[in-house]
Each structure stands twice: as C-alpha cells, then as structure tokens.
Design a protein that fits this description.
This protein is an alpha/beta fold. Helix content is 33%, strand content 21%. The chain is built from 15 helices and 17 strands. The strands form three sheets. It has a nine-stranded mixed sheet with strand order 16-15-14-13-7-12-11-8-17. Strands 3-2-1-4-5-6 form a six-stranded parallel sheet, with helices on both faces. The mean pLDDT is 95. The structure holds 6-O-phosphono-beta-D-glucopyranose.
Length: 491
Amino acid sequence: MDGLQFTKEPAPFVITIFGATGDLTRKKLVPALFSLFLKGNASQFKVIGFARRPWTKETFEAEALSMLSGGHFSQVPESQKRAFIEKLDYISSTFGDPEGYAKLAEAVAPWEGKLFYLSTPPDDYPVIIENLGKAGLNRTTHGYSRVIVEKPFGRDLATAKELNEVLSTQFEENQIYRIDHYLGKETVQNILVLRFGNGIFEPLWNSRYIDNIQITVAESIGVGTRGNYYEKSGTLRDMVQNHIFQLMTLLLMDPPNDLSPDTVRTEKVKVLKSLRPITYKDINKYTVRGQYSAGVTQGQPVRGYLEEEGVAKDSKTETFVALQVHVDTWRWEGVPIFIRTGKGLGRKVSEVAITFKQPPLQVFRNQASDEGQNQLVLHIQPEEGFTFHINAKIPGYTTQVRPVNMDFAYGDAFGEATPEAYERLILDALVGDSTLYTRRDEIEASWTFITRILQGWAQDPNPLPQYRAGSAGPEEAKALTASVGQKWRKL
Ligand code: BG6
C-alpha cells in the first residue's frame, strides 16, 4: 500500500470561526470538526468562536454540546463530547474592534496552523479581512495562515471582484479558500473518477455521442426562515452561480494532466469562459424563472413565496430557474446543457442525466415498444450512485426491445455512510489542498455569465411565472427542452 494515502493528518491547528453564533456553525461547522476529531483526523487543535454576542467560553461549550446532541452523534459517548468541547474558546467582540483581534492574535500565536473561517453575513467580510491584516494574522513566521470564505461570494461580477480585491490586499491567493460545499460531496467528486478513471466514458464524452445534458437540483422545502436572505438573492445567485456551475464544470471540463489544484481549476475555468453569453435579446429563449405559490409538497402544506416571512408582497425574486446553456468548445458544440433548480418542488433530488445520441442506423426501430436513448444518470443526492439506461431484448420468440437499468449504489458497494461535505473541505484547507475550492478567476468567470442574465431579467417586463408548491416547476420551463425535441426528466 506504499504511496497510497487514505488519511490526512493536519499539523496542530487553531480554527477561528467568525460568526460562531450563526446557523452554519451549529448545523455544519461544529459537527464537521467533531467528526474529524472522532475519526482521528484532528487531535491537537483549538476552535475559537469569534462573534458579537456576549457569550463566554462556557456558553460556547454548552451551545456546542447541544449542537452535538442529536442525529448521528446521539450514540457517541458523553466523554468524547466533553473531550471535544474542552478545545473550544470564545472571543466576544464586534468585527471592527482592534482589541478583539489583539486577543485573537494572542490566542492563536502558539499554533502552527491558523485557519480563519468567515461565516458572517457577507457585509462583514471586508472589515474582518482588513482587521486580520492589521493584527498581522494574515502572515506567519511558522506554519500557515489561511482564510476560508463562505458563500455568497459577491452578488454580481462587480461585488465579487471587490471582495477578491479586499482579500488580495491582505492574503496571497494560495492562502484563500473560497468554499462551495457541493465540491465536498462524494458523488460530486466521483464525477472526475467516473470520467477520468475509466476508459469507457471519455471517448464518448463529446458532441459526437452526447445529445444533451440535464442538471437538476430540486428542493421540496420553501425558503422557510430565510426569507430576508432569499429576497436579496434568488435562485440564480443562491444555487446556479456556485453549486450548479461546479457540477457543470466537472462534467464538461477537459481531462487534467494531473490532480494538482491549479491544473484541475484551470480546466474548469476554461469551461466557464466558453459559456455562450445569454443577453437580453435571448433571455426568454434560454431562461425561465418562477415563483412558488401555495401548495402541498410531500404531504405537507407549503405557503406561497409571497406569504413567507421577510418577503415583499410584490416580490420579483425567483425561487425557480431553468436554463439552456451552450459551451462553445470543440468538444461541446451543439450540445444543449439544461439546468433546473428551485425550492418548493415535488421532491428533493440532485442528479445529472447525460443522454446519448441514437445509433446512426436504428435497426430495431420497429421492434421497440419503448426504445429510449441511452442515458447515464448520476445520482448526487439523496440517492448516491448512478444508473445506466440501456436497451435490451425482451425475452421471448420475437425481437422486442425496451430500456433496462444498470445500477450502482454507493451504499451497496462501500457499505458505509459518506462523510459530510464540510468535513472533507475543512480537512483539505487544513492540509493546504485547494483543489476543491474555487479560484479567483473561476468565481469571476461564473459571475460574468450570471450577471448578464441578471441584467437581462432586470429589463424584462414580463410577469414572473408561478408554479404550485409540490409541482415540477412552471409550465414555461417545458419549452426549453421541447425546443430540441426533449423532455425534462420526471422529478
Ligand atoms: C445552500 C443554499 O448553499 O445550499 C440553500 O443557500 C440550499 O438555499 C442549500 O438549500 C442546498 O444544499 P444541499 O447540500 O442540501 O443540497
């Protein structure tokens, strides 16, 4: 097994969470750090919560205990939880107060690795970044100093560039980790293994053999308590610019020559830069927006978006987006990429469907009751795995053809639960691997494309189509796939 690395052991580190009293810390960050601790991937470390609320070390400890009380931690012995929370500390400070940073500098000084996690509302990022610099926390004479920046990273190209500028005044690019939790998902990482670790797919992975690609990220819940945030964001910013574009670039990129962070990310950027711009004149041809109205999803009544807390009664914010995009490269010329995502839909499911062209001569066309195009469906979540739809002969004296499925399920093959996205990503930042983080040019390239659409929508006088919560989205979205004789996959 020499040379194969299955675990990663970071050097002793201190992680400072700005915004430690927030939702992300509760739901994702503390649980992820605890998992790393339980699995032995973190032994010598400290977690410092840094936030405005007048908590103490004891409050943070008690809060952390409650964060670890339920779910898959309920069986973990109390002693291990206690051993973990001993590593916590808390600094109560506003984000602009130099005194808070002086305390922080003292607390982190002995540690080799210093990781700063920005998990506050994004308006606070500039002042935190500046103060980290002023306190000298952006440089270190031994070990490293790194910063993880949570989404949203800007709200358009101009603001994303501004944030990149602010970051670059204090940190080098190799110290900056722009997180996108979709890249931490096993099934997303497996896209690269599927494509480049097998000989059979890559020769077919181009416009000669692929007819179209559909990417679906559907959520059944509405915006819930996040109405205030969502109003200013909308689905295009919340899901497409980041998560879906990450999926898309992994699907469409050219093979990297190696797995170094810059080689992989350079290939991804090339895809984003080749996206054919959607300008105002094509806005209704290639994009569809929608907003959910009251309905029932999975047996639960869901109120309409306009009735949600924090949402304007005449809101024009989209809760659903469907796009048809084209990537103008030698490999993908003429292959439409369909994207659809939204809240208040019938089911929570993320998947990618790659539909292959029909054989040049369809000799079985008269034998097929229901001959479908071959399709490879990558199940991202909640199912994890993939399904190949191929045509087969129905047993019997006559030749009749119908599609059958070949399935691969992670659970069956590996038998263990896949790690949470944040565990893998935090661990990567601790060992200095930025492959699964977004580079500066990558974020700016995706915002370039998205900002044009936002500008087009801003000029579009048409009303926003509504869709009933629990449905598959607005009827108007059907026109996108129908334009090339295709249909959306059933949700
Ligand atoms: C977040 C979005 O980034 O991703 C949320 O802000 C969305 O609106 C979430 O619900 C989806 O993540 P996941 O991992 O549940 O698919």
